[in-house]
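ligand=zinc ion
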Amino acid sequence: MRKYRLCPKCGHSVFGGRCKWCNYVLPPENTTAAEEAEPQEPQVIEVPQQAPPVPAARVEPEAAAKSNQMVVMDAQQKARRILYTAEQNARELANKTRLESDARAAEIIASAQQ
Ligand SMILES: [Zn+2]
């Protein structure tokens, strides 16, 4: 009779001689008194059968990194927009100041030439 065992590699419950989560081949079953006394692993109820054969621990950091990257990209876009607006404002102000001083200089030169 086959029974559930814990995969020593990924920790998932394994039915039979091979872990379906990480393909680890478990060593042959040696039924001891301690193993017989061990209760059925409740973890198997939490894990859906249609889950991909990838250990959850490997998926979650990637997903977290992806969302972190998106947050960083969003922040970068916002910062770029703010910077662009500030540059636009500064450029407009500088242009206005330059035009005003140019006009003033022209006036001074014109009056000096008269
Ligand atoms: Zn495994």
